[in-house]
Design brief:
The complex is a heterodimer of chains A (129) and B (298). Chain A is of the alpha+beta class. Helix content of chain A is 50%, strand content 26%. In chain A, strands 2-1-5-4-3 form a 5-stranded antiparallel beta sheet, sandwiched between helices. In chain A, β1 and β2 form a beta hairpin. In chain A, α1 packs antiparallel against α3. In chain B, strands 1-5-2-3-4 form a 5-stranded antiparallel beta sheet, with helices on one face. In chain B, α3 crosses α4, α5 packs across α6 and α8 crosses α9. Classes of the chains: A alpha+beta (129), B alpha+beta (298). Chains A and B meet through α1, β2 and α3 of A and α2 and α8 of B.
């Protein structure tokens, strides 16, 4: 089913990009859809991620810098990378200090497209069923 | 062309490229594309730093191991930035770390990073002569002969272990029963708690703030003591939330993959953070049952 494919997709990204420690997909209103966060509370993560994405998009818009590609936060203990998935969802990736950001930029686009398609499929299935 | 590290030493073309750069007395960067890939920084033909996602940087080694506190690091970093000086000089002048200890950490980080680069795949490499800017370079830089010999030694040590250890893509699974009477020391307890079936040896090294090579040797000892088993793919948290669920392809003796501790093998090993598993919320969509083939990586 779609959710298993969703998990497989974010697991595949984790295998392709060195340094990812956790992943989650949430709705734009901050509710968790799928998570494999490695011990981080998924509900809090989902809520904060949705807020951070909205803020980052607003910031980019205010600065007149076009479309947000990703919102990356770097801290002393690692990285948090946030991506919009279509208009209704958000992908968050947690990474350690060694996260391969360059490869992440490259690999994340295809993953996001696939997740978007899976979520669309999932909602059409639920509407039909 | 893709090359991999052999039992004899680092991937041949990478070894050659580094030797050529050193012989030419190059100052600049040898950029390595591959998995994990990275950048080898040279000054006057000597290696001063290696950056790779596959091995902890000196900063990670110093901070995660609590040799230096974050606030001390920030203070020294700010001072070095303001004065336009060296981070290493600031750390030593402020007595945050001894010069000998710092040199030891820097050389360990260098050898570990080279070992990881050489053990991975190298798709291509290119040299980019120019100024080198790195927070904590080894001064004076390491000679490539030493670095390559040390890398070969590490690869030989790994090849001599009874199981194969993949740095990037190793998995774990429940399997053989723990050997009765096995004794644990504190560091083993810590590493076993981290070996949860989701982390590679590289991930565990980052979490502990120690080298990847040293971590693999520790994992190998734990595996020999039957305290760790291996799986064929990365576990997810759902695999852990549903104890009866076994990841597909998991079997004792399968090729060495991500290390994982034995479930409930010892009260000593229980991690309160992982023991308290949260019931998944059913929100936008119900969580579907997991089909046997999903989540497998090629």
């Amino acid at each position: 089913m779609a959710e298993d494919k969703l998990l497989a997709e974010i697991q595949a990204l984790r295998d392709k990009v060195t340094g990812i420690t956790g992943t989650a997909v949430a709705s734009r209103d901050g509710l968790i859809i799928r998570d494999d966060t490695g011990g981080v509370d998924p509900d809090n993560l989902a809520a904060l991620t949705a807020t951070a994405l909205a803020l980052a998009q607003r910031l980019v818009s205010e600065a007149g810098q076009g479309t947000l590609r990703e919102a990356v936060t770097r801290s002393s203990g690692g990285h948090v990378a946030i991506y919009a998935v279509g208009a209704n969802a958000v992908l968050v990736l947690l990474g350690d200090e060694g996260l391969d950001i360059t490869r992440l930029h490259y690999e994340s686009r295809a993953t996001i497209d696939t997740i978007e398609a899976l979520l669309a499929l999932s909602s059409s299935e639920s509407a039909a069923g | 062309m893709t090359t991999e590290g052999s039992e004899d030493g680092p991937a041949g073309p990478l070894r050659e490229a580094l030797t050529v750069c050193a012989a030419a007395g190059m100052s600049g960067t040898l950029r390595v594309t591959g998995h994990p890939g990275g950048a080898i920084h040279l000054v006057d033909g000597r290696v001063v730093a290696i950056e790779t996602p596959g091995a902890p940087s000196p900063e990670v080694l110093l901070l995660r191991s609590h040799r230096i506190t974050e606030s001390d690091w920030d203070t020294a970093f700010a001072a070095a930035a303001v004065a336009g000086g060296r981070m290493s000089a600031e750390l030593i002048a402020r007595e945050m770390v001894g010069s000998g200890e710092l040199e030891g950490v820097l050389r360990t980080a260098l050898a570990d990073a080279m070992f990881v680069l050489a053990s991975g795949t190298v798709e291509e490499y290119r040299s980019e002569p120019g100024p080198v800017d790195f927070v904590l370079p080894v001064e004076p830089g390491a000679e490539t002969e030493w670095l390559l010999a040390e890398t070969s030694r590490r690869i030989r040590v790994l090849a001599s272990l009874p199981d194969r250890y993949d740095l990037n893509r190793v998995m774990a699974a429940p399997g053989a029963a723990a050997r009765p009477g096995a004794r644990l020391v504190e560091s083993q307890d810590e590493i076993l708690a981290l070996a949860d079936g989701r982390r590679t040896p590289r991930d565990i090294a980052f979490a502990l703030g120690q080298g990847v090579f040293a971590t693999i040797l520790q994992l190998a000892r734990l595996r020999e003591a039957d305290l760790l088993v291996t799986a064929s793919r990365r576990m997810t948290e759902r695999d852990r939330r549903e104890p009866g669920h076994q990841a597909p392809g998991d079997e004792p003796g399968s090729p060495s993959k991500l290390p994982r501790r034995q479930r409930d093998r010892s009260a000593l090993l229980r991690n309160p953070k992982t023991a308290e598993l949260r019931a998944p919320l059913r929100l936008l969509q119900p969580r579907f049952g997991r089909s046997p083939g999903s989540g497998e990586t090629p």
